[in-house]
Amino acid sequence: MTAPPFAPMWLRDNCHCGQCLDPRNGQKLVSVADVPAGVSVLSAEDGGDVLRVVFGPDGHRGVFPRSLFARPPDDDGRTEDSKELWDTVRPTTVDWPDYLARPAPLLNAVRRTGFGLLRATPTDPGTVLEIVRTFGYVRTTNYGALFDVRVEERPTNLAFTGLSIGPHTDNPYRDPVPTLQLLHCLRNAATGGESGLVDGFRAAALLRDTDLAAFTLLTRTPVSFAWTDGTTYLTARQPMIGVDPLGRIREVRFNNRSLRPVSGTAAEQEAFYRAYRAFDALLRRPGATVTFTLAPGDCVIFDNTRLLHSRTAFTDHGARHLQGCYADLDALQSVPGHGGVTMDPIDELDALFAGEGARDYLGEAVSQAAHMLQAAALAREAGSPPALVAATLLHDIGHFDSLVTGVGAGSVRQSTDVRHSDTGAEWLSRWFPAAACEPVRLHVAAKRYLCAVEPGYAEQLSEASVHTLSLQGGPMSTGEAAAFAVHPFAADAVALRRFDERAKDPGRDVPGFEAYRSLLEGQRRLT
Amino acid sequence: MTAPPFAPMWLRDNCHCGQCLDPRNGQKLVSVADVPAGVSVLSAEDGGDVLRVVFGPDGHRGVFPRSLFARPPDDDGRTEDSKELWDTVRPTTVDWPDYLARPAPLLNAVRRTGFGLLRATPTDPGTVLEIVRTFGYVRTTNYGALFDVRVEERPTNLAFTGLSIGPHTDNPYRDPVPTLQLLHCLRNAATGGESGLVDGFRAAALLRDTDLAAFTLLTRTPVSFAWTDGTTYLTARQPMIGVDPLGRIREVRFNNRSLRPVSGTAAEQEAFYRAYRAFDALLRRPGATVTFTLAPGDCVIFDNTRLLHSRTAFTDHGARHLQGCYADLDALQSVPGHGGVTMDPIDELDALFAGEGARDYLGEAVSQAAHMLQAAALAREAGSPPALVAATLLHDIGHFDSLVTGVGAGSVRQSTDVRHSDTGAEWLSRWFPAAACEPVRLHVAAKRYLCAVEPGYAEQLSEASVHTLSLQGGPMSTGEAAAFAVHPFAADAVALRRFDERAKDPGRDVPGFEAYRSLLEGQRRLT
User: Fold this and answer.
1) Could you give all domains of chain B from N- to C-terminal order, each with its CATH number?
2) Is the ipTM value over 0.85, yes or no?
């Protein structure tokens, strides 16, 4: 087997030997300057799970886990590509005790749809800080760790009046802007004061579709936002629509209240306002705002780089009291499923099997959880090694909305079905060894392989599996099949696939997730 | 007088009438959607300090302070344009008691050069948090509010070993990345462990100058950084060199330890590593790293979006103990001179007169402070109104490095001298009325005016003033002079200019800044 198509410098910089990578924390021990300029690959040898490479000119012996070459690029889940953009959406609503038991569904809703609603939280002042501490860290600002939203006699901000406030993002005059906001209701007997949320990414995408010139202008024009209370003066200069270097929507700042006069000639001002008003109109388009009235104990958590919030006017001032605070997305978005808090991945898998996993599985007769548990039971009965049992038990976790970023419901899930093996293996590879991850990655390919090489195999597939086969590329060509067969985990993937096909029996009763906990713990220690 | 060349929509959105702008907090009460689409200017009337405009089609009567039309665009001071890039630089070093009395010099050094060094701080654990609280807010992360940097037996990060660490920025796997870092030394009897800082903006600018293809590639290629300790997993995807929509360098992320494998074909990997290594080589170029050994009580504060820090290896592990924490630039950079803390602007002016203002003034015989105090004394002796006395006292504050972002020393200051009137007036306009700000804005123009219309005026200018005249555009043309003469503050600006020219007497003794405090307080209340 020859070296994969990677540049020698890339290979050397990603070497996993003990000299190059600290086994204690996974950090590189070498800088890119330490790699000889003329680095080359002298030889590459297949060592099963690993590839061994001898480098020139210095003879360095490198080691590479095979999973390194197969993994999809990391993504931080912050651009439109990783979100579920919406025109209208049902808020994900979770009661406080359920949230404390399983934070993932709510937190992943915040990542995916931009917001989530906690119900039945305590109404003690300061609770909002406790809520943040369940998933991250409070971003203290000049407004304090938390701020009270109620009518003040001498308001330093329109928030502290009873006036209506149109859709906006908070603190656009700050850099870094707070990326998450929480609003927690202590009391609300006021008339009016309904809260609204609209998807700024969706509106920006619509602007791109309908008026590319306006979209481009708003992404390329830095504008200044400012705020002062007479002693503190804050300002930040950013475009209203921020895009990443690939042009993907990544951040919206929108707040006319604190927008400073834009510069330019009269003609430039005209063009800017034309674009700005077109975006504003899309943000206010009928039906695109999700509205709700916060009741005592409700707390809405939303992405302040994406969603715009608004509220209607209210009267009976003394009766409405919210507490708000800011936090950041980085912890929340970094760990699929548990938002940066130290939740054990096996506990999380347990929660997935008990929760989301119990729902319908793409038209099959059993739920996703029942399907995977049946498959694992078949693997165990067949005397499979523990890693293969683990892989079989977890082979479809890439389907789980709350685990994997950017996978929505319905048609989205089906169209990306071809990727669920990659996304599942990607998540697993953080915690489990290649022997437990690679069969998961390959189990879709194994179906295409078996359809190509095994007469009669295609005929026994379920209707849903036949449908996805075409999305997945159909049976392999002879060349593809030959290449697949020499993969070190091909045999395990084929075995997993056979368990998979047989595990759709609505009448079968098998052990639950708990029966595999110690096996999973054992596998996890092997990474 | 006709309306200035501004689009009707721009004018209307920036209307300062009580209906459009909340006088209590300066926030707009209207959204851009509230402006009629066919808005037009029916008439404009000169009202002295203000312009009055009647808008069609709704007949809205708008009011505009004249200063609105003259102000330079706001800037948040975060791109290369607002920084003093350096190949080598003398650290700004301030003792703790001096800092507490006047934080501006150190904090502005952080904004301008990217770092500053506090000396003689207490060596009690936790002091680093106290230091942050003097100017902003601690950014708590999974490392805690503060982290101890000393050798650990089972390090989760190379920082907690005695190994050398090359130049890097911290937490590139986090978004928002902490924009400021502090390292505070409690103990250091180790051998080695020297700290180094290099200017990442300067290295990026050099890369742009010498290898535009490499620069462009690094600005356009998002790369992933990741970190895990087995339970928390953090990742962010950003380019190594971040630029704003105008292409100006705004953020550097550089840390090979946590760089994930970059994606792409072998050829793309080759190109990436070529660019990456070119940038790395510039960061390590000889002489570009400022080095220092932190002694107990020292605390270095640096911009983690710009400077890269490094340290040499050290032995005698138990003897080195730093505490670090993160904070953010937004407060620091938002308020020129006092970093977002509620420092009274008049106290700050006082500090400037006593500190920086006492230094040489562009080759004149008196310091800047003495010059402005002499000018103010002349204004007072002439019976000038308080606003003009204030303007005269403060007319050159645009020269103050620590007040105004982006104004460096030496040649930089001279070449931008033409702007010091704008930058000074800009800062003053946050706190003082137009009558105190506009003469400052116009006092350079007044020199050009007087040179044009007053025989013999040019001849009595000092040598330095003649030199700057040419930088400022030379004497006005007849048309320019006529336009200047009708400005409502032209007469005050000319009067200020005459005090200015006479206020360069090395032997003259005049009252100090304190003599003007109540006058300034009175002016401030007029805004």
Assistant:
1) 8-69 (3.30.2020.30), 85-332 (3.60.130.10), 345-524 (1.10.3210.10)
2) no
